[in-house]
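Weekly modeling sync, notes
Attendees: S.R. (lead), two postdocs, one rotation student

Agenda item 3: backlog of single-chain predictions. S.R. asked that every request posted to the team notebook include the full sequence so nobody has to chase files. The rotation student volunteered to paste the first one in as an example of the format we agreed on. Action items at the bottom.

Example entry:
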Amino acid sequence: MIRIGRCCLLLSLLTCTPAKSEDGPEAGSADPAAQFSRKVLLRQFDRNRDGRLNDKETSVLRDAFGGIDVPMLPDESYDYTHVDRPGSITPEQLRNADNTPEGNPLTNPGATLGRVLLYDRQLSENGAVSCASCHDQKAAFADPRRFSIGFNGERTRRNSMGLTNIRYTHLKGRRPGFFWDERAPTLEAQALMPIQDEIEMGMKLKDLNKKLGKLPYYPPLFAAAFGSTEITSERIARALAQFMRSMVSLRSKFDRAAAAAAEKDDNSTDFDLFTAQENLGKSLFMEGIGGIAEFGCAVCHPPPTFNMDKAQNVGLDLKYRDKGLGALGRQSNEPFTPSNDGKFKASSLRNIALTAPYMHDGRFKTLDQVVKHYSSGVQPHPNLGLAPREEEFGAPGTGFHLSKDEQAALVAFLRTLTDDQFVSDPRFSDPFVRAPH
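Predicted structure, as returned to the notebook:
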């Protein structure tokens, strides 16, 4: 149960009606969630009027709400619908890759609700973890741990995937699923699975709906997003999906260099804003080894989204303990592979330098190790879908047989995909007022 604090404003907040004080939101406010705006909360709890909450003021606020974390939202809603598209990318490219369904368009109130849901520990059975516990903004919404820790302290079976550009997954005419094994057909379906997982968050949806309905901030947020205070699992999924789709990252060094080349109408291979090493890495990635496109990374990770269009077996093992897509019992997604065993679909390579460790089981700690695997560590699995065989290069081992300079160049290029603004963007940050440490 949530206690009602002594502050008279809290009665209004807990019953989801605007405060009648001249300091509170006006009755009939167009934005019901304004009750949890920065201006209103600071007006009530910032006693020394310094524009922030110190530890004592934070404790008073949390105590007034029964000891729970509450969100502090911006006075003016963040804009989640605008995509800052560089000149090198056409609207058609993004439109064709967009997985947004007609029934769940991206809106500012919907993404705002999704942001609160993603960071709210109340979505777990015991209030210990949130979605963001395994998807850290500083790590481009991946988890820097090899395996994430669930609500009861157990480790997950796979490494948590980054969420960068999860909106743009429709590629080459395909509509792949979500997660490493593509088990979720839509982002909306994906959003609810970790919440119900017995290791990750441990909630039953019927219990979650009731639990959220008792929290003072959700009725106005759901009303703002969907027109009524009704809380359903479908609405939870839609809001989370909207927020995740707003996580678009197109402001990297690569984007600036590509836009500069496009502005000059420069058809040369090299980018002026890249170093020689970065340009070599770009050539290997885009054009392939020896100029053979089939031997390039872009075959599986095409720009500008750098997402994958399907799960692939990249020769990590000859025998897989975790069969990935193969465990789902589906027909092989490629006619030349006998099954889907060992096939996984990675996240976008944008911000890849921030999302270590790598692969579905987090076996590689660094990008250097990843590139070394593709150079000489690929195992000749029957379902192998990308690497050339050793006879194609006349060298021992399986892989692309890159020189050390080429390996370093590929890593340098991958680092140009980092978007520093994305990982510090306040639109995607934790909105909750947390207990003082």
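Discussion: group reviewed the output briefly. Confidence is low (pLDDT under 50) at residues 1-29, 389-396.
Action items: rotation student to repeat for the remaining queue; S.R. to check formatting next week.
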